[in-house]
Model the fold of this input.
Amino acid sequence: MTLRPATDLFSEWADVGRDEGMERGHTPSVDVMLDRLLEGWNQPFTAIDIGCGNGWVVRRLRQHPLCAHASGMDGAPSMITKAREVDPTGEYVEAMLPDWSPSKPVDLVHTMECLYYLEEPLPFLKTIHDAWMNPGGRLVIGVDHYLENEASHDWGVSLHVHMSTLSIEAWKQGLADAGFTDIHAEQVGAKEGWAGTLVLTASKPALT
Ligand SMILES: C[S@@+](CC[C@H](N)C(=O)[O-])C[C@H]1O[C@@H](n2cnc3c(N)ncnc32)[C@H](O)[C@@H]1O
Done:
C-alpha cells in the first residue's frame, strides 16, 4: 500500500467541504478539551491550535475573555486558505510538523486529531514542551485513533495515510518523559463499539 501525506488528504477534504463535518463531529470532544484546558485559568493567555484545520478552535479560543492571542497551524494548504477566508484578521500558519515551531512560546496548546499522523508523536511531545510552551502552561491533546479504540484501527489502511497507534499508557509515559506533570487521561463519549476520544491533559511545570 502506498501511503500519502495526511496533509494532502485533508487539503482535499477542505476543498470539498469535509472540514465542516469534521468540525461538527469533533465538537463534543473539543467542548470537554477546552473545559479541561481553561479550568481555573485566571490570567490572560496566549494559545495555539496544532493541526487547526479550518481554524474553528482558534476562533473559539479567541472568544474567551482572557485570551490575549490565539493562532493556528496546519500543513494542509486548503485548510489554511479556508481559515483565512473565514477570519482574514486571524493568524493561521501553513507549516509542516514536526519541523515547524512557533517563534514565541504560548501558555495553552490545543491539538485535536492531529498528533498520531506523525511518524513519531512521542518525541514531538518533548518539542512541544521545550519549544512551544511557557513554563506553567497547559496542553490538551485529543485523539480518536489509539490502541484501546479498536474501531479506529483500520482508518490508516482505508485512508492510505500513516497513523501511529499508541496505547493510553504510551501517551501518558510519553508526556512524562517529555517533562510534563499533572498528566490525566480520560475517554470522552465512549459507547458500545467506540472507546471515545482519548483526552490527555498535562502541564509544563512553572519556574520556581
Ligand atoms: C483530522 S484533521 C483535524 C483538524 C482539526 N483539528 C479539527 O478538529 O477539525 C487533522 C489535521 O492535522 C493536519 N496535519 C496532519 N499531519 C500534519 C503534519 N505533519 N503537519 C501539519 N499538519 C498536519 C491535517 O492537515 C489536518 O488538517
Q: What stands out?
A: The CA atoms of residues 168 and 197 lie 11 Å apart.
